[in-house]
Each structure stands twice: as C-alpha cells, then as structure tokens.
Amino acid sequence: MTKPADSQRTMMQTDTHHLSISIIVPCYNEERNLERGVLDQVYQYLQTQHFAWEIIVVNDGSTDRSRELLEEFGRNKRDFRLLDIPHGGKPAAIWAGILQAQADVLLFTDTDQSTPINELGKLLPWYEQGFEVVIGSRRMSREGTSLIRQIGSLVFLNLRRLFLLRSIIDTQCGFKVCQRQVAVRIFPNLEFFKRKFRPTGWKVTAYDVEFLYLVEKLGYHIKEVPVCWANCDQSDTKGTSSDWSRYVRESIDMAKEVLRIKVNQLKGLYEKERTS
To answer: What residue ranges do the domains of the chain occupy?
Structure first.
C-alpha cells in the first residue's frame, strides 16, 4: 500500500485541538472488567486531552451485570452514551456504535483495556499524517497470554499472510483508529452482515481481516503502530469451556473465516465494493 508522501518524516507531537473523536467500546459480559474500573481509566484520560470526544459503549446483549454497571458508571457523566442491542457479536456492536458516532474520527477499543487508552497518543499523529486507518499492533508481544495461544497467534499470522494483508503483522488487536466515512463505507459490506449471522454466547471472528483487506483494496492508507498490550481480561462469563478446547474451536473458526475471505477474493466478489 502506497503511503502518504509526508509519512516518511520523523513523527513529531501533533496538535489535536481540532479533532473530534468517538470512542466505541463493544461490551459483552464484561462484569469483572467493569468492576475493576476500566471505564474510569478511559474517562480520566480523556478529560486531560485537548480534543473533543465522546464515549459510546454498546452493550451487546450481556447476560451478567454489565448493563447495570454501565448504567451506574454513566450516570451524570457528559459525553457518555450507552447503547443496547440484541446479542449480535463484536462486529454488530461496533457497527451500532459507528451509526451513532458524532465525530469524524473513531477509536475502536476493547472493554478490558488490554491496550490502555493512553496508547491513543501513538496512533493519532499518523492519522494526522494522512492515514485513514491506524491500527495498534502487539507485534509478537502477548504478555499474560498462555504459551499455546502465543504459538497459535504466530501460526495464524504466518498462514494469514500467505493469503491476505502480507504487510500487516497484527490484524486482531482491538485498538484501531478509523475515519468514520471509511467505516461507514466498508462495514455493511462485511460478510458478517450479509449472512445476517447471530452468534450465541461469546464467539471470536476474523472480521478485522476482512475489514482491513477492504480498506486496502479500496485504496485507503493503513498504518500499523506498535502499542503496549498485556492481557488484562478478567471476564469469566464469556464462555465455560477450558482454555484448550476454546482455543481449538476459535482457531478453527478463524481459519475458516480467512479461507472464506480468500475464496471470495478469488471469485471476484469484492470487485463491486471497489467501484461502489
């Protein structure tokens, strides 16, 4: 992907006073993460920034106390909105947030804050340099993650790069800045929505891969930026299976998703998105 010409300059502190950012946080059964004050951290950080902002938390049909805790957190807080949707999976939650976002710049970030909100300062300068999508990258760092998952991530990376997005290391980090008009153009074209898929319980998806593939295909610019990441997820209500069985199931699902994207590419199914 050709980069904006001025991206080769040494990155300097960027004046973000004119920016307006919508922070979109999908939430499904995050009771324990919410109890440890993750949203307080987000809110406190944003209050120190010079740009305009809003927080949109999308409750994705949680079955634990997440909804109650979110309502309690948002009480009397300005620039905080809570959306409720039937359980539809992470892409559905993010899309609901996109539709309600008021800003031209979006940040997708996970409730558990494994990538802390203050890493936003590493992404925004590249957005200012002309990259429509700037993604956080864990590289090979997986602090707090089991060895089997670290190995699995490396296998997934190499297999995925054989087929798609060869220049990108980490497609799955949940910390991404995106121009709103790009997200509005691409999200409805994801296979996830075309299939009208409704998951039951917690389910990992490779929507990030398809999203970034379409970003690249449509001629937008992607910048991958290393960010700090440590597994902070304390949720114990997303699934009941053991780490090993859950890992195997998720790995199979991810492989199927990447294969489906490659098959769609070979069939030319993405060509109409390019001309639309």
So the answer is: 16-275
